[in-house]
Design a protein that fits this description.
Elements (H helix, E strand, L loop, with lengths): L8 E12 L2 E12 L3 E5 L6 H7 L10 E9 L2 E2 L7 H7 E4 L10 H11 L6 H14 L3 H4 L12 H13 L5 E5 L7 H14 L4 E5 L3 H7 L2 E6 L2 E7 H6 L4 H7 L5
Parallel strand pairs: 3-8, 3-9, 6-7, 7-8
Antiparallel strand pairs: 1-2, 1-4, 4-5, 9-10
Helix pairs in contact: 3-4, 3-6, 4-6, 6-7
The protein binds adenosine-5'-triphosphate.
Length: 258
Amino acid sequence: MTDNSLPATKMSARDVHVYYGATHAIKGVSIDVDQENVTAFIGPSGCGKSTFLRTLNRMNDTIPIARVEGDITLDGENIYSPAMDVVQLRARVGMVFQKPNPFPKSIYENVAYGPRIHGLAPVKSDMDRVVEQSLRRAGLWEEVKDRLHDSGTALSGGQQQRLCIARAIAVDPEVILMDEPCSALDPIATAKIEELIHELRGRYAIVIVTHNMQQAARVSQRTAFFHLGHLVEYGVTSDIFTNPRQERTKDYITGRYG
Ligand SMILES: Nc1ncnc2c1ncn2[C@@H]1O[C@H](COP(=O)(O)OP(=O)(O)OP(=O)(O)O)[C@@H](O)[C@H]1O
């Protein structure tokens, strides 16, 4: 895929609004998320990046006062349709959170949990293969292969985050949403996650929320700049950082506010 050809759209949002009670947190956002590219959401604190990210796999459903309006599709299918199975949706559109949150179970069980509840690997040998493949894809296998039955919570923060990525990968998702996945990690663990994002690009559509503009520039090919609930500008990452069209984007990336 070259940057000149039109990339395939994996998810589309049209005129999305999100309310928390009377707070209007997302105001008419429309965006296409590509299959082939990593998309970064940037913007100052409270601008709605995480809120919008959560609309993409209906995580806002878990917040009682949250209300979502507008259309969001996955491969053309409306994810807010009553016919959509939300458990299935969250397997197809996986999520990795700010703070690594492994289950208090073994490394093996952390990865096996999702495939087991989705009935993806009924035979033990199949499950062993899924666990190994997921840990390999998450760049963790070599570090944990001899201690698969140790607790996931005993790993370092960076390893825990890669375990959470392996857990998301294990159910064979199509999209992976990452909400500031490196904010609790040191620079070396952060570099490993960024490297991993490069390796996973193409296999999964990836959307990452980040506070760190250098990180957005390093890992993404598309960047969306949010401000006060609006999507101000969306485009090729290098253009957003070197030649933004909107004054508000320019002010943000040059550090005038944030
Ligand atoms: N669970 C919630 N209940 C009520 N209001 C919320 C909730 N979550 C977010 N908000 C509000 O919605 C707006 C957008 O918040 P959101 O966390 O999406 O922004 P953000 O850009 O991700 O911020 P940050 O970078 O600080 O994480 C803010 O005004 C916030 O206070």
